[in-house]
Amino acid sequence: MKRIAYLHNAYDIEYELQKNKLATCSFSMSLNDEKMKLVQPKYFIELWDHHKRIGMFVVNPKNTTKNESTNEVTFECEHVLSLLHSSVIFGYMQISNYTTTQVLQALFNKQLVNHFKLGRCALTRYFHYGFENSDSLLNSIMSVFEPINEDYLINIDDSVYPFVFNVDKSSTKAKDLITVGRNMKGIDVEDDPTDICTRIYPLGHGEGINQLTIKKVNGGVPYLQAPQSVIDKYGLHARIWADKKYENPTTLKNDAQKILDNNMTPKRSYKINVAHTDVIMSNPTDYKAGDVIRVFDKELGINEDNFVEKYKRSGVYETPDNLTIEIGSVRKGLGSKWSDLQKKQMVNDVYSQGATNIDSRDFQDNADDRYPAIIRFPIPEDVVNINQMTLTYELSKFRATNRTLKSAGALVDSTSSGGSIVKSTSSGGGSVQTSSSGGGTTQSSTSGGGGTLTSAAGGAYISTTSSGGSGIVTAKGKPFTNYESFTALENKTSDPDDGSAHTHRFTINGGHFLHDHEVELPNHVHGMNIPAHNHNVTIPSHNHSVTIPAHTHNTQIPAHDHQIDIPDHVHSINIPGHTHEIEYGIFENPKEASSVEITVDGTKLSITATSGQNIDLLPYIKKNSDGDIERGRYAEIIIKPNDLARINATVTSRLFIQSRIGVTM
């Protein structure tokens, strides 16, 4: 910025500084002052109060008065903070769950000309903000602080460009003492119970049943109330406070609590005429709006620490010691919000309130237990309230539109995962008879004889036994030449070949010893010892002739079963290319499903009936951590029958929607 003039001849200079509000000043110049023409609308004015710089202002109205006694021009100025009135927010801007610093920065980015930049911000809150067609960026910036229930102080550094916007926490420590006999020239005390309120019903965005309340974040109670001790003292005074710019219940509640705190007791304010110590004292106290001052007056019973809400100087050079300050309670913060804000800091009156809409979604399709019906429908981002959401459905017979399909040939492999055992059983036995028409002759022959040799590994001892004796006649042959005669009483033993001793009794008849023997053999045993030997048999060439007469076979099969073990195997079937003619039409499955399973956003319902009407879906729709239904997504309903079926379903929703999405065609 370039300085173009010093206005040494300006007079009737006065200014008014307010805590967290727009400061103003005014001055006059003679119509004949040569520098008067340099003062143009929207030019910057740097204001000083003697040795103290007050701040930078912008020239706005210009009032020229010319008559017999007066020939002057008066200029009204606003602090440079008013430059933010020249920028707007066109359309809708929503900022949710961001810090106070981030919200302010997003708003400062909306400047058409970057007169300001964001500096310090000692506050950190997370609120939902919505701005729509705001005709003043300054109004939007100041509204950021409305739900904050902590005292703060906006400090503008207008000694640099771009100007710096700082937000600091207010101090609660008294900076100075104002009392009679020291620096207090006069005091006016006002106790105003006009706006007293001990119960407040906050209302925000919307209309009728869809208007925002604090019930959701206040235990179901739609109002806030002062402590019982305050009610006992001042009574129960209820107010309805409606501000339709609020779209978040937490923000609405916080700001309502602040209003209640400011108005639950009669409003006390002090207007004090103070000696301007900056001028009359060598070590002056530098008062400014937002400072904490202790006010003491023994006669009035006043001894309080209070904020300087307004700092007013008039006749800066004409009456240099004149200073008026207005003081409010430390705990009252911004003051009452029942009245309108200062000029150009009013609440915007342009809002898109929205309307209730009925959204109906129909669904018809076939389904079974493997392929359920899936119904998806949107929940738009700009839905303010979901008043109702219901499901009506019924199951009917599965429906097809043809009987056959064309097909090409294919090689089909079917594989069993393992073998199996198949068992078959007959109820009883049976007789099977075969017959031939006659007998037959079968002949077998060899080409020649052959020799067969058998051998024993060794000899054997064989005993034979006779059941009784016998007479044996031996042939006559030669006469005995040597003999011995024995009497009947004499015994003679003989050792036969088998080693068993026995006796022979014989009688010789005839002469010359020609005779025969009659031998009486008693019961006895012969023992034969067969040595190891073999047999050699020669079979000559020969043939066999067998005659089979006509006959039948009769076989008796008893009751029995068969068990067959089938191993793992694969069947390969080659189906040649072919076509089937299609029969067009609508065909229903004769069977019907007997039950159904319904899932809404992953939550299974207890309903299993094959039909239902106006089932409330709101308890099952997916919600966020605050218990609100999630917006900006598709909800999903799954209907799964236990068999082939046709699903007929309708989802009906009553939604309160704001018109903030889309373009104008």
Automatic annotation (TrEMBL):
InterPro entries: Phage_tail_spike_N, Tail_dom. Residues 411-451 are annotated as: Disordered. Residues 414-426 have a biased composition (Low complexity). It comes from the Bacteria. Residues 427-451 have a biased composition (Gly residues). Residues 94-336 form the Tail spike domain. This is Tail spike domain-containing protein. It comes from Macrococcoides bohemicum.
